[in-house]
Amino acid sequence: MSKIVSLQNIVVGFDGENVLNGLSLDIHDKEFVTFLGPSGCGKTTTLRVIGGFVQPSSGNVFFDGQDITNLPPYKRQVNTVFQKYALFPHLNVYENVAFGLRLKKMDEKEIRSRVLEMLEVVGLKGFERRDTTNLSGGQQQRVAIARGLVNHPRVLLLDEPLGALDLKLRKEMQLELKRLQQAMNITFIYVTHDQEEALTMSDTVVVMKDGNIQQIGSPIDIYNEPENAFVASFIGESNIIDGIMLRDFCVEFAGNEFTCVDKGFGHNELVQVVIRPEDIQVVPAIQGQLTGVVKEVIFKGVHYEMRVEQAGYEWIIHSTQASAPGELIGMCIGPDEIHIMTRTEG
Amino acid sequence: MKKQHLAALQKVYLCLIFSFLYVPIAVMMVFSFNESKSRTLFTGFTLKWYKSLLHNEMILEALWLSLVVAFLAATVATILGVMASIGISGMKKRTQGVINTVSYLPVVNPEIITGVSLMMLFVVYVNVAHWLNSNPSVPGFLKFLPENIFGFGTLLIAHITFCVPYVIFNVAPKLRRMDVRMYEAALDLGCNPRQAFFKVVLPELMPAILSAFLISLTYSIDDFIISYFSCGTLQTLPIAIYSMTRKKVSPEINALSTIMFVAILCIILVSNALESRSYRKKRIKE
Amino acid sequence: MIKNRKLAAPYLVWMVVFILVPLAIVTYFAFTDKEGSFTLENLMIIGQYSTVFVRSLLLAAEATVICLVLSFPVSYFLSRQRAAKQKIFLMLVMLPMWMNFLLRTYAWMSLLENNGIINRILGFFGIGPFQMIYTSGAVVLGMVYNFLPYMILPLYTAMTKIDNSVIEAAQDLGAGMFKTLTKVLIPLSAPGIATGITMVFVPSVSTFIISRMLGGGSNMLIGDLIELQFLGNSYNYNLGSALSLVLMVIVLLCMSFTNGFDDEDMEGVV
């Protein structure tokens, strides 16, 4: 797969503080890439660097092999779907979508056919003459997407576009966006702080924190093989425990030795162990590798969430079977479910 | 029981206040149709005051001057003010604060002080021009400043000066509240900064600019005090009205008031009707 | 967004030349004599006119208080009406403001005259006639009439922000009508009161037309005095400038007082 966007050592500073610290990243063509991270991690800034709205103080932006670092936004072959959409309130739906084509001095007939086609693609057929201010959030969202896509950009940038929608609509739009990206066969770069959204839609997820990339990988990799505690805790709930790598395929934590699938760490190296709550098996106390006392049980719909105290550590366990608070239970963890990371500060 | 009393009291009170506001105007309107010159006894119906008003050269000229000055002042003030609002929005908070404070001066200062201070500026200018023109030691190429400036120019300058702040206070907040992403979206879709301004930012500001223009227009037409100090021998409509009131008995004023009141009432009713119609239209669309 | 500071340049020049320089000139003239040398005499002379100053301040204060008392119930009633009715009432309040104030003041001249309509009506009942025009009362009346909407509107704006439930809560907690007024309504409409006071007091204290038309020669105010120095018979720019300067200080003091009040209130809200 070819690279379409490439960032090299991008540094961006605001008021003397670096928002991006020498960030480098390659984005492959026709992928759905998501920048994921908490607010202030630099994900939106990265997007704005690609869009041309933020000038990096050092570093280069390449687009299809060409250096576009100093190219203004209106000369880039990317379009953006803005947070809260930024539709032009003085123009109706049709004119909003036609805006970019008009600037290209395109033939009116061509504009018309492209705008109508695009409105149909986003499911807004028949809305051409409507005022944008009277549309629902989801409809405005579709107009914003159509307005970007109608220009046939090579890359579409989306800055938390679903943030303002309610949960149900958001789920709908997630699938819709994925479908659109595949139908248009172009690159989508998507910014969100919602890990579930990132996992649902993306081909590649870029997890960011404090202006640095923490991990790049497929949703499955990111979820199952987090590279550090930050990624592990940011992507879903996790039990993260300090441990010691005794030797290859053997780790000690929570006062017990466990078989694992990791190797290549140093002898007796200090590590962190990540175990997903749903990967802990609840068994009778005698059969458990570990035993603990159930502190709290909360019904979550699909499963129960239990907090279990074991040797001063509180485990989170997701199980379809509830145990009673106060009950002594056993816990088993299979070798595949133990993820080892080098220990990081904080 | 008690509540009913209160409601009745409330109605009576509002009636009293509104009669206080409107009775004087009503009396004027009635007496504009009065046969005799008396301001107190109604002796018979006539339209002659309206006729003589329409043939009153002084009033008509004053009205024309007021309209011309108002239109020019509002136009210049709007352009200056919009440019200033945009320019100021790019400045540091502190500088903005200083500029806003100075701009506020003509708004909060008593009008008489704005009028007097502008008059003094013009007087000082006249003195300087006179000195330059009459002093033999000044080289000839410096003797080009006109001395008789009190009149249209000074009037226009004064009106622009008190109108610009209203434009800025109307437009600048709109600009501040405008979504920056709207401008970025325009750039993103292929506008260069100039196009983005004219295609997106300006249309967005248009309602504020228009209302600023209308406010300037009305303030300019209505102004008496500041004009009074800067108009020289020219007469705007309010100044003409003032000179008529000095003559004490002049039923033409009543006729003029009636015409103006009816005209204003019509403008307000029409604009309200238009507003509520477009509002309803929007509601229907939803 | 569009960072083009140069666009402000024409206005900044205009602002300096036509706002700041004129005020500087007034200040300069206030502190110089006819020959242009520094003097404090102009400001000293003002002492002779203390009666004019006292009268101006007094009449303006009277007008402001009357406006406040009259407006408070009006604004409150308006703010409790249904939205459609509010709009109509507001229009009725503002409509007279759109007429030139000279015409509005002139209307009162014919009502207040010795053989004017009011005296005629009173005479019909065998009362009067009273001397009404050319009294200080007439001047105050003219101020109240001209500036009443300036008090009603800010009060109304402040009061529309007071939720009915707040008043009901006060009553629920045992506040009677008077307590509700003093403990809830007045504090909550304080920003409106402050704005209203400034908007009535400033034009009242500086007027020179209302006093001339309704007060005759005997009720001269600061405004009249200033006007006389520039366009009238007295013709003394230096004294006129000094008077203007003092008037400006009075107004600024009044504004800083009401503004301070306003700010404090804002702090309470934030």
The CATH topology of the largest domain in chain A turns out to be Rossmann fold
Mean pLDDT of chain C: 87
Which structural class do the helices and strands of chain A define? alpha+beta
Compressed to H and E, one letter per element, the order of chain C equals HHHHHHHHHHHHH
**How many helix segments of chain A?**
8
- What is the string of SSEs of chain A from the N terminus onward? EEEHEEEHHHEHEHEEHHEEEEEEEEEE
Please tell me the total number of domains of chain A.
Answer: 2
The total beta strand count of chain A reads: 20
- CATH H-level superfamily of the largest domain in chain A: P-loop containing nucleotide triphosphate hydrolases
Q: How is the biggest beta sheet of chain C arranged? A: none
Strand tally of chain C is: 0
The Rg value of chain C, from CA coordinates, equals: 23 Å
Distance between the termini of chain C: 29 Å
Which fold name fills CATH's third level, the topology of one domain in chain C? MetI-like fold
Shape of chain A: elongated
Strand order of the largest sheet of chain A: 6-7-8-3-9-10
The level 1 CATH classification of one domain in chain C is Mainly Alpha
Oligomer: heterotrimer
Q: What is the gyration radius of chain A calculated from CA atoms?
A: 24 Å
Largest interface: B-C, 80 and 78 residues
Task: Explain the overall architecture.
The complex is a heterotrimer of chains A (346), B (286) and C (270). Chain A is of the alpha+beta class and 346 residues long. Chain A contains eight helices and 20 strands. Chain A folds into two domains: 3-229, P-loop containing nucleotide triphosphate hydrolases (Rossmann fold, 3-Layer(aba) Sandwich); 237-342, Nucleic acid-binding proteins (OB fold (Dihydrolipoamide Acetyltransferase, E2P), Beta Barrel). Chain A has helices at 43-51, 93-103, 108-121, 137-149, 167-184, 195-201, 219-224, 229-234; strands at 3-14, 17-28, 32-36, 58-63, 66-67, 78-81, 155-159, 187-192, 204-209, 212-217, 239-247, 250-253, 256-259, 269-275, 281-283, 290-299, 304-310, 313-319, 328-332, 339-342. In chain A, strand 7 (155-159), helix 5 (167-184) and strand 8 (187-192) form a beta-alpha-beta unit. Chain B is an all-alpha fold and 286 residues long. Chain B contains eleven helices and no strands. Chain B has helices at 2-31, 48-54, 57-89, 93-108, 111-134, 152-177, 180-188, 193-222, 225-230, 237-246, 251-285. In chain B, helix 1 (2-31) crosses helix 11 (251-285), helix 3 (57-89) packs antiparallel against helix 8 and helix 6 (152-177) packs across helix 8 (193-222). Chain B is globular and about 70 Å long. Chain C has a domain at 50-235: MetI-like (MetI-like fold, Orthogonal Bundle), CATH 1.10.3720. Chain C has 13 helices and no strands. Chain C has helices spanning 9-30, 41-45, 50-79, 83-94, 101-112, 117-124, 136-160, 164-172, 177-188, 190-206, 209-215, 222-230, 237-269. Chains in contact: A-B, B-C. Chains B and C meet through helix 1, helix 3, helix 4, helix 5 and helix 6 of B and helix 1, helix 3, helix 4, helix 5 and helix 7 of C.
